[in-house]
Each structure stands twice: as C-alpha cells, then as structure tokens.
Design a protein that fits this description.
The structure holds two protein chains of two kinds.
Chain A: E1 4-7, E2 10-13, E3 18-25, E4 31-37, E5 44-50, E6 53-57, E7 64-70, E8 73-79, E9 87-94, E10 104-105, E11 109-113
Parallel strand pairs in A: 2-11
Antiparallel strand pairs in A: 1-3, 3-8, 4-5, 4-9, 5-6, 7-8, 9-10, 9-11
Chain B: E1 3-5, E2 10-14, E3 19-21, E4 24-26, E5 32-38, E6 44-50, E7 56-58, E8 64-68, E9 73-78, E10 87-94, E11 103-104, E12 108-113
Parallel strand pairs in B: 2-12
Antiparallel strand pairs in B: 1-4, 3-9, 5-6, 5-10, 7-8, 8-9, 10-11, 10-12
Classes of the chains: A mainly beta, B mainly beta.
C-alpha cells in the first residue's frame, strides 16, 4: 500500500466552527507532514512529525493544532479560522524526516472558510 | 540554506513535441533533487529524484532529468508530450540533514496544444 489518504475531500466551515482534517498512511513511514497550498503556489510546510513527535512548526497560528495519535495517523484540528485560511491542505509522509527523503502526498482536503 | 528557482511560470507545447522544464538550485553541498507533478485539485506525485551517481535520472511517465553540477541545474525532459501531461510541475531540493526540509520551486504550469 503506497497511498496516503485524506478525509474529507472538501470542507466548508464558518469562522466559529471546530473541525478536523485526517490523514492516514500504512507504509510504515515515521515522518508525516502538513502543508498548506494556495492556488497557483507551491506547498508551504506547516508541521513535521517525526516518530510521533512534533519536530518542526513553521510558526503556524495556534488556530491550527496538529496531532499524531500513532505512527499511521495525523490530524489537523481547526478552530476559529479566517477566510484567508481557505486553501488545499496536503498531508505527506516519508520513511524518515529530513530533506533527503522523498515524500508521498495525499490528494488533499479543499478547505473553504466562510 | 538551499533554494530552488523555476524560471518559467507557464509553458505551452504541442502534443507530440519535446519538453524541457528548467530548474536551478542553490546549495553548498550535493543536493537531493526532486521533480513532482500536480494535476488540478490533486496531491503531488513524485516523477523522479536524484541523490547521487548517474547524472541522468529516469522517472515515471517517460520523464527524465539531468543533474548538471556546473550549471546548478536539474532540468526535466520528455521526448514527446501527451495531453495528459498538462499539469503543474514542481522542482524541489533537500539537504542531508534530519532537520532539513524539502524546498519547492514556484512551479511551472504546462499546457498542451492539441
């Protein structure tokens, strides 16, 4: 199984809502990532988990809260988002963390904040 | 720190024509180089990667790339494009450190003329 799955595919939420994005991989990878991608832009790294511990936080606002319950799962909890947070949120995984490891990407969650 | 530049924002080629997408990187040591492709609304798929060894790298979908240290380049090529190759292409560079990230270029959008 070489897939990274993400749910939901689409999410529309109001600025006062609380929602979560989910990501799963069964490749035995020990690093998992959250990226944010705006239209016509490259992915921007948000968080990196290595061996279920948060290793990189790219100064992301606290309204985004990541969680790694186990080595296969990665969540992104969303609360009090702003319209400018509307974007494609991509999850990725790799065998280990570090810029020398190829990352496998999920299809993304298209988030719209009203 | 490493960086990557994709000079071409948008390229249009005719179906069946050859393709070359440019990528220039900046890094003091031997870089880890990647080409990813993203179809509209989808995640990123790895086309090929270069870590060391043979400077001509073969990838999936008939793509290849050549690492040229003297020119700090890693250009992507395909001898004959198909309409299904229309997508966004990202060059990325990483470093050999567990704390490093993959840095993406700004992307090149490829359109195919029938």
């Amino acid at each position: 199984d070489t897939e990274v799955t993400q749910t939901p595919k689409h999410l529309v939420m109001g600025m006062t809502n609380k929602k979560s994005l989910k990501c799963e991989q069964h490749m035995g990878h020990r690093a998992m990532y959250w990226y944010k991608q705006k239209a016509k832009k490259p992915p921007e790294l948000m968080f990196v988990y290595s061996y279920e511990k948060l290793s990189i936080n790219e100064s992301v606002p606290s309204r985004f809260s990541p969680e790694c319950p186990n080595s296969s799962l990665l969540n992104l909890h969303l609360h009090a988002l702003q319209p400018e947070d509307s974007a494609l949120y991509l999850c990725a995984s790799s065998q280990a963390s570090g810029g020398y490891n190829e990352q496998f990407f999920g299809p993304g969650t298209r988030l719209t904040v009203l | 720190a490493q960086s990557v530049t994709q000079p071409d924002i948008h390229i249009t080629v005719s179906e069946g024509a050859s393709l070359e997408l440019r990528c220039n990187y900046s890094y003091g040591a031997t870089p880890y180089l990647f080409w990813y492709v993203q179809s509209p609304g989808q995640g990123l798929q790895l086309l090929l990667k270069y870590f060391s060894g043979d400077t001509l790298v073969q990838g999936i979908k008939g793509f290849e790339a050549e690492f040229k240290r003297s020119q700090s380049s890693f250009n992507l090529r395909k001898p004959s494009v198909h309409w299904s190759d229309a997508a966004e292409y990202f060059c990325a560079v990483g470093a050999h450190s567990s704390a490093s990230k993959i840095i993406f270029g700004s992307g090149t959008r490829l359109s195919i003329r029938p």
